[in-house]
Write a structure and sequence with these properties.
Helix content: 25-40%
Strand order of the largest sheet: 16-13-15-14-18-19-17-20
Number of strands: 20
Radius of gyration: 22 Å
Number of helices: 15
Oligomer: single chain
Strand content: 15-25%
Distance between the termini: 55 Å
Structural class: alpha+beta
Shape: globular
């Protein structure tokens, strides 16, 4: 049975194709102040609110005036792809949907500047047109640029940092309405904090990125036993520029994925709307629906199905290989643990899922990320291993996530800011040696907490 990586991710994640619900609904209707009730919800439907206003300024000057005139809490929103409650407010939600696109580039420095509201799904082609590319990308490109860097969103690769590390400069609209241009030489303390700022410092209107020359990637994917992959993880991460695995829950197997730069010609592009491999989908779906009462039989069948899967290599432009179609909704928790603790942490999580027969049929995602020096980045101070657990949006995630989260704590895990977690300032501050450096910048830029909703007040203890 031949299936592509996109098929497998889509198929293991769910058994039906669902549209990306929620997000930024009725932007045109929200382009100016209104007293109509326009509810907001995130992509998964797990976060929702009824804000006082939903606005989309068309220029930076309009944004500055909006901030100065607002009498409510202000929260920026991108593609609504965060699972944590970063956005919900009864105040004002601001989209940068009109502040988007490639604004300029410097071929000599291999740098580009984009509007903060640019969907990352549109950046690859724009960069390729000027001979550039992002050095690394997440396997989802639905996010907007400002949202992705504000939560230190990342891909995988022991030599590659998160999106936040690719930022060479940015413009920040602060609580006073002032526009501040900052980089490593101008307002460096603001720049370093804003590269992962959770939207708590202001609204990032434009971003200057350090790129590289455009390139192609070869994707190789194979099925192997999870424990064998963990035993061999040092070699796999050393010999591949980008390596990760999707662990098939309630089975012994995982899908390993390696991406490496190549000059080989592109392979034919599969139709992303094709329904290939539906037999795989139906088998996984039915096993969850009808086989959960017989866990041993379910595991045996999953192992058999996994062993039958095979994959063709893919070659294409980097941005087309990095990113994948995710048209099935879910909720997600992710923690990053010190890189050396990754295998032990994952093994304990899988043991808990097996021993307690926790109800889930989504794969776990296992990746590595290089260290950085950004105060609130999950990867500050040392390389980390990021482990994600997921639950289909129609299934309650609370008990499942509650069972797994303490395992992350045991291994010194830091939660992904855009994913679900239960930590507040008291637990978070000890995890980040430079916590006070960030909170001092936040207090100086926004002493009244105009950009803080209830969730962020809990996060920062304000």
């Amino acid at each position: 049975m031949q299936v592509t990586r996109r098929d497998l991710i889509r198929q293991l994640a769910a058994g039906v194709a669902l549209g990306a619900g929620g997000g930024w609904n009725a932007l045109a209707a929200a382009a100016a102040p209104t007293h109509r009730i326009i509810p907001w919800r995130n992509w998964s439907g797990g976060q929702a609110c009824i804000p006082f206003a939903r606005l989309a300024p068309k220029t930076e000057d309009e944004l500055s005036a909006l901030i100065r005139g607002a009498t409510t809490t202000i929260r920026p929103v991108g593609a609504a792809h965060s699972f944590s409650p970063l956005v919900p407010t009864d105040g004002t939600i601001v989209s940068l949907a009109h502040l988007r696109g490639l604004l300029g580039h410097d071929a000599g420095k291999l740098q580009s500047e984009f509007g903060g509201g640019t969907p990352m799904s549109t950046m690859g082609e724009a960069l390729k047109a000027v001979g550039l590319a992002l050095p690394n990308m997440s396997d989802i490109d639905y996010q907007t640029l400002s949202g992705a860097i504000s939560t230190s969103t990342h891909g995988t690769g022991v030599s590659f940092g998160s999106y936040s590390t690719q930022v060479a400069g940015l413009r920040l609209a602060t609580a006073s309405g002032e526009l501040i241009d900052c980089d490593a030489e101008h307002h460096p303390e603001i720049f370093n904090a804003a590269r992962c700022g959770l939207g708590a410092l202001g609204i990032i209107t434009r971003v200057r990125l350090q790129n590289r020359k455009a390139f192609r990637l070869r994707e190789r994917m194979w099925i192997a036993k999870t424990n064998d992959l963990l035993d061999d993880v040092d070699r796999l991460t050393r010999e591949n520029q980008h390596w990760e695995m999707q662990v098939i829950t309630h089975s012994d197997y995982a899908a390993a994925i390696a991406l490496n730069e190549t000059e080989d010609p592109p392979t034919p592009v599969a139709d992303p709307a094709a329904e290939g491999g539906n037999e795989y989908v139906k088998a996984i779906e039915k096993l969850d629906k009808y086989g959960s009462d017989w866990p041993a039989a379910r595991s045996a069948i999953l192992n058999l199905i996994a062993r039958t899967a095979s994959f063709d290599d893919r070659v294409g432009d980097s941005y087309a290989i990095f990113a994948n179609v995710r048209n099935v909704r879910f909720n997600e928790m992710e923690y990053s643990v010190p890189a050396e603790a990754g295998p032990a942490c994952l093994r304990e999580i899988l043991k808990k899922i097996h021993d307690k027969q926790l109800p889930t049929w989504f794969p776990l995602e296992y990746r590595y990320v290089h260290a950085d020096d950004i105060p609130l980045s999950m990867f500050e101070g040392g390389p980390r291993c990021a482990i994600s657990i997921h639950q289909h949006y129609t299934m309650d995630y609370h008990n499942y996530f509650a069972a797994i989260e303490p395992i992350f704590w045991k291994y010194g895990g830091r939660p992904h800011w855009g994913k679900l977690h239960t930590l507040g300032a008291r637990q978070l501050a000890p995890l980040y040696p430079r916590w006070k450096e960030f909170t001092d910048v936040r207090a100086a830029l926004d002493p009244q907490g105009r950009f803080l909703n209830g969730h962020l007040r809990t996060v920062f203890g304000v």
